[in-house]
Amino acid sequence: MASRLRTLPRLARLPAWPAAALRRHYASAASAKPLFEGEPEGPTVKTQIPGPESKKAIERLDKVFDTRALNMMVDYTKSKGNYIADPDGNVLLDVYAQIASIPVGYNNPTLLKAATSPEMASTLINRPALGNFPSHSWAEVLETGILKVAPKGLDQVFTGTTGSDANELAYKAAFMWKRQQERGGHHVDFTEHEINSSMVNQAPGAPQLSILSFTSAFHGRLFGSLSTTRSKPIHKLDIPAFDWPRAPFPRCKYPLDEHAAENAAEEQRCLDETERLIKEWHHPPAAVVVEPIQSEGGDNHASPNFFRGLRELTKKHNILFIVDEVQTGVGATGKFWAHEHWGLSSPPDMVTFSKKAQTAGYYYGNTDLRPNKPYRQFNTWMGDPARAILFRAIVQEIERLDLVGNTKRTGEYLYDGLKRLGERFPEEIQNLRGKGQGTFIAWDSPRRDEVLRKAKGEGVNIGGSGERAVRLRPMLIFQEKHADLLLERLEKIFKS
């Protein structure tokens, strides 16, 4: 308590909150029950990052593994809760969380219990080829975990291994659905011409169809998903790509609600161009894929009206609506699924997931999205039951601690703190965004890379996206006391 109250004179200088009210708030926050028992009280910075032990480990690893994208070396045995440790004894508050992939803290006891159970041990050493040899308990595992939190209206799942894999599989499902519709339904079989032409990659067996995505989108790095990724050239250079359409994603002004009229006009422009592409692109789209918040492309937001408009366009033109919730899903935005913020008239046709779920796949509801024959949507593993068991434990922990509610509350608190900080340092926090989106918050910084580097020296691990965005991706157990610490360290960086 004392260490936190020592920050009050500084915090009281923030203009938008009277000191007395601020003290009452922080006293209340300090007494809030921790969501992760036994985690560090705060960061510890003993050396530069990387320190000498990390440098030794990096040098050794570089001989056998490409380390050029390395952020920091980690000692996972000493990482706990919201804190990530390195081999030199540095302990950082982690608000990047393995690129938004750690849901309930490092070395979470609930997950450890699930990971060391006899059920998990059997699953790990007897990994099944799920399409051919599923466990007798596979339906129960799905029903009590992955499907327990399925988006409304989507009661079936196809499991995969990664976010890219999930999107690839969803695209395949969309193409097969579209061609079956064009043939007249599931009961209509393939023609001899279709069968033969498919083997030489020619139409009609290999149809000239497409998936429509958006500028700055990121949907993965496999061949189909990479063709819909538009965030950075480095992902795409030298890789053959499909001739698929790219629609403009709205370039909104922030905060969204303060520029409603301008943003509405921009969103309508993008919807009009999307419809034109759907109607005129030389390889007709079978589906539209979109992220609720464009993450890797710079944390770009749009209003619910834009996404409702997309949904109506897909229904109007009889194509599928795929929502890529790989990064936004599993509670990060104050809803379990980010598209729940939109108030859609009908659910998406497919929702892809991974990252915080620790497994991957796509949800769907329409049985017509099941191919008309076996082995069309298939691979050896078709996911991983061990990871599905882990997701079940994650769901249990989220429900036990009301972590979606926590993310909503903490996100509101953190956004308000960043807004006040931005009023004092307007050159440092530009285009603050993520209001009402839980802890899925970002802003633009003219010296983004320097801020990220200095943050490590202040005991905080933060990530970036796009060309200049600082993005926050804390875990679901991130609380107001962690937000206090983050705001304090950011203030120190901005003053330097």
From TrEMBL:
EC number: 2.6.1.19
Disordered: annotated span: 33-52
Pfam families membership: Aminotran_3
Cellular component annotations (GO), alphabetically ordered: mitochondrion
Class of enzymatic activity (EC top level): transferase
Cofactor(s) essential for the protein: pyridoxal 5'-phosphate
One GO BP annotation of this record: gamma-aminobutyric acid catabolic process
InterPro entries named among the record's database cross-references: 4NH2But_aminotransferase_euk, Aminotrans_3, PyrdxlP-dep_Trfase, PyrdxlP-dep_Trfase_major, PyrdxlP-dep_Trfase_small
Keywords associated with the record: Aminotransferase, Pyridoxal phosphate, Transferase
Molecular function terms, GO-annotated: 4-aminobutyrate:2-oxoglutarate transaminase activity; pyridoxal phosphate binding
Recorded catalytic activity of this chain's protein: 4-aminobutanoate + 2-oxoglutarate = succinate semialdehyde + L-glutamate
Coiled-coil features, chain-numbered ranges: none
Listed NCBIfam families: GABAtrns_euk
Similarity field: Belongs to the class-III pyridoxal-phosphate-dependent aminotransferase family.
Name the UniProt record assigns to this protein: 4-aminobutyrate aminotransferase
Provenance organism: Sporormia fimetaria CBS 119925
